[in-house]
Amino acid sequence: MKISEWDVIQEAGKKLTPMFGPGYTGMRNLGNSCYLNSVMQVLFTIPDFVDRYPKNIETIYSECRNSPASDLTVQMAKLGHGLLSGDYSKETPLEDGEDEAKEKCQVGIAPRMFKALIGRGHPEFSTNRQQDAQEFLLHVFNLIERNTRGTNNPCDSFKMQLEDRIECTQSQQVRYTTRFDYILSVPIPLEAATNADEFAAYEVKKKELEANKQCIDPKEIVRLKIPFKACLDKMTQPEIVDDFYSSALKARSTAKKTTKLASFPDYLLIQLRKFTLGDDWVPKKLDVSVDMPDDLDLTSIRGAGLQPGEVELPEGDKPEPSKFINCKDS
Predict the structure, then answer these.
(1) What pTM was computed for the model?
(2) DSSP letters along 35-83, please?
(3) What angle is formed at CA 52 by the lines to CA 41 and CA 263, rounded to 5 degrees?
(4) Residue 39: how many CB atoms within 10 A of its CB?
(5) How many angstroms separate the first and last alpha carbons of the chain?
(6) Which tens digits make up the pLDDT trace of 272-296?
(7) What is the DSSP string of 126-195?
(8) Residue 3: which pLDDT band, with cuts at 50, 70 and 90?
(9) What Cα–Cα distance (Å) separates residue 237 from each residue in 193, 252, 262, 278?
(10) H helix and E strand count, the chain
(11) From CA 102, how far away is CA 91, in angstroms rounded?
(12) Would you report the helix, strand and coil content of the chain in percent, each value rounded to 5?
């Protein structure tokens, strides 16, 4: 985050109305824990998580046989209750002599026990440093999976089956495989930007200002605008796989790989792949804006399995190991 853009993110200059009551509880930052706060606030808008934890809090508390500080189910229920009950989202009463025009605020919650438990033994999430929200989400899912074996797992509401299709470019024979995932990762095609000319003009102006050691007004920043439909189209385009062993040819070849959805989850989590490799092979983050429509047609990414006329690759996709003759001096 650039310091010059902070005011834009914080909606500086705008009159914001404080919110109170159930579902409007804020979470305090513990170091740089905004990644944790944002992920958990989203999860507790999902009915499966609400039903599993805060709505079941009395039973969870009564059945706890271990230390509550070390029980993930207890800590999830406690956090969900804190966010949704409204008990910590009440106006702070004025003290004697305080001006009634003073800005209203709420106490909010500081999930220290939850953070300590969820990060226990983890080299990154046990620290107070900023972390990646997607990596943290998958870490939470992994812990929940381990703690809900044989019982209702709320993470299943995000689970989907992906279909990978591999086609040998020489034999045109295909293989379909499926795998489960929780997040749909999509690329960002910069070439699909709808404001390329406007962005090019901004880049020229930006260089002129930087050459004159002048600051750029954050409100005048122009980012490439990418339609989300273009991201989906890019995801389903064939990817060339080099050095592919074709069981039809029994030799190395190239293949085309495409990925689609064999099943749809109740709630679709999407990751925009904003990191790319620069010309110097150093990862860099794309500073772009992706336009998300209110209604999204996912027909184009629905997998349909083996199609009429397609021939499946024979079983066995690895070459036989090389045979060596061990020659010893006589």
Answers:
(1) 0.83
(2) HHHHHHHHHTTSHHHHHHTGGGHHHHHHH--S-GGG-HHHHHHHHHHHH
(3) 80
(4) 17
(5) 71
(6) 998 877 778 888 888 999 999 999 8
(7) TSSS---HHHHHHHHHHHHHHH-TTS--GGGGG-EEEEEEEEETTT--EEEEEEEESEEEE---GGG-S-
(8) very low
(9) 17, 23, 16, 22
(10) 9, 10
(11) 12
(12) 35, 20, 50
Helix axes 133-147, 34-43, angle to 10 degrees: 50
Contacts by 242-247, CB closer than 8 A, 24 or more apart: 244/166, 244/168, 245/317, 245/318, 245/319, 246/168, 246/170, 246/171, 246/173, 246/313, 247/313, 247/314, 247/315, 247/316, 247/317
Contacts of 100 (CB under 8 A, 6+ apart): 94
32 is written with which tokens? 């740089």
- Give residue-wise pLDDT tens across range 57-96: 999 999 998 899 999 999 999 999 999 998 888 887 766 6
Please tell me the distance from the alpha carbon of residue 91 to that of residue 94, in angstroms, as a whole number. 9
- Provide the pLDDT confidence category of residue 320 given band limits of 50, 70 and 90: low
Q: Which two tokens stand for residue 223?
A: 């980012």
For residues 288 and 227, is the Cβ–Cβ distance under 8 A? no
pLDDT tens per residue across span 119-176 = 999 999 999 898 999 999 999 999 999 998 878 899 999 999 999 999 999 999 999 9
d(CA 186, CA 235): 6
> What does the alpha-carbon distance between residue 70 and residue 40 come to, in Å, rounded to a whole number?
18
Residue among 158, 157, 177, 159 at smallest CA distance from 167: 177
CA nearest neighbour of 30 among 119, 91, 98, 95: 119
- Alpha-carbon distance of 79 to 93, in angstroms, equals 24
Which token pair is 30?
Answer: 């513990």
Mean pLDDT of 193-216: 92
- Which residue's entry shows tokens 């620069």? 278
